[in-house]
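Repro:
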Amino acid sequence: MTHESSSQPLRPAELGQDSAVAPLAPQLAQFAAVARLEHVTQAAQLLGMPQPTLSRAVARLEAELGLDLLARQGRTVRLTRAGRLLLGSVERALSELERGVEQARAETDPVTGRVAFGFLHTMGTDAVPALLRGFRVEHPQVRFQLVQDYVAAMLERLRAGELDLCLVAPLPNAPDLTACPLDEQRLYLVVPSDHRLAGRRRIRLAEVADEPFVAVEEGYGLRSITDAFCAEAGFSPRIAFEGEEAETLRGLVAAGLGVALLPPGLVPRPGVVELEVTAPRTRRAIGLAWVTGRPLTPPVAAFLDFVRSRRGRLLDHD
């Protein structure tokens, strides 16, 4: 004779018209109240419902299950063996439900709630820490889940409800998303320090049409922006190497493996020179995105308002 383990992994309960459990959920909670107190009248008072209504609800539950859960002795009751087995599961389910409700409420608490915030890798070293520092002056207990990813992945997680807000570039143009522009950032052509153009301060992007480029991978916002600027200059960039981080690309440029369109570095990088591009106007718009019409929790709304107040001051202007 074998025994099933009591620590089997939980499987989701079935929902819908074929579910045997979902329609019984209110009656299960009422049954638990009666079983805890072993008294129908006291349980009815606790639940704020008439005693006959509660008695009928428990009777319907027994009829639905085809089981005797309670042995009635006047106004008091005692659990049958089947009732004790069911009560244990119902108690665990109610306890888990209470924890879930507490967690959901904690997420939306105006003082201590949580904001799931996604942002570009290039914003993580300076702009985002400055935003968080400024916001927490007035909201010191709000918690943040921070996610760095490329634009397409962040917008997918935004739509799925995993993120509340995203700091992105380029701004999405989709009916289900709202975008708020915040600032513009100049993109420089980064060349090796021994490059033929390294002594220049300004160039036209078309002057490097025949050069190999290093760029972030497809799907990243900076890649689509680079491709668009090159197209505007009349050529398609010949991508020699792809990476994920701007500083990695700077290292590849310093090694002489190509040129790149990148936002300004926070600190000077040996081996590279940043050139201002005069044609086309290589600037990218940076802004916030969120799902249109989705209600915002109080902490998310407060952070959204704060970030909007930083419009035009998100980045150092050059």
